[in-house]
Amino acid sequence: MMKIAIIGIGRMGGALALTLSKVGYIVETLVTKDVPKTSAIADRILPTPRVILFKELQKLETPDLIFITTQDDNVAKVAIELAKYINSECTVLHTSGSLSSEILSPVKEKSCHVGSLHPLVAISDPQMGMENFKNAFFCLEGDEEALNICKRIVTSLQGHSFFIPTSSKPLYHASAVMTAGHLVTLFQIAIKMLGECGIPSDQAQKILLPLAKSVFSNLEEQSPAEALTGTFARADTETLRKHLSLMNEHALDHIKELYLKIGLFSLDMIQSRKPHLREKIERMKAEILKDLGAKI
Fold it and tell me: What pTM was estimated for this model as a whole?
């Protein structure tokens, strides 16, 4: 059985520790800055792993696999420190979405295989993360041996793997931020707009949530261009003008600018699918560009 150490026992590290211990891996060591919190996780794992402080990294007995699950700005520091104490060949992976395996060069120089494994799921706590790994997609990159180990782990977690070039990691992560973080922000903007209609934010969230869910339900069956509905899907310039008029009245300038720029992407998306709307699309684009002026 593969023996594993995990450095950084927050939401991701805790979720991996709990999950991997249940699917045939031996989680030997948990490295942390918070012993009481980490010990509570260790107590749920059999056999119970050792818990050591990061400053005691010299006590780490080199396992088959080491996960670095710290915050992104600590990964390089951990790799440098870890390289001082690794005494046999192993594989080192980190779980950062934005960093590539190149940041692990200090341990690579010690003959370790290196890679990254990033699950495309939101993990709010270790228990929730353990449940969310199943059927999740995992972005993998690294050297050949590291990728082989990553694939085995993802299979054990009942997830799905996909691969990107090492140089593409930041762009991949920006895509994930657009999907997760920015969607939440757009939802909050929609709540604010309903607030301008006199609807309290908690009620606005309840009103808009079924709509958002229906969009994701449609995306499970359709392409984005097919799933797009509403004003921009119809290239409805008259309705757009009404929207802009009220946004101006309520001084929602920043929201209006964002609304229009996203609208341009919507029009580009439907252009090839709806040639019968070509003139309406061009007219609507001209209206948007006129309103945005020099901002484009």
Answer: 0.86
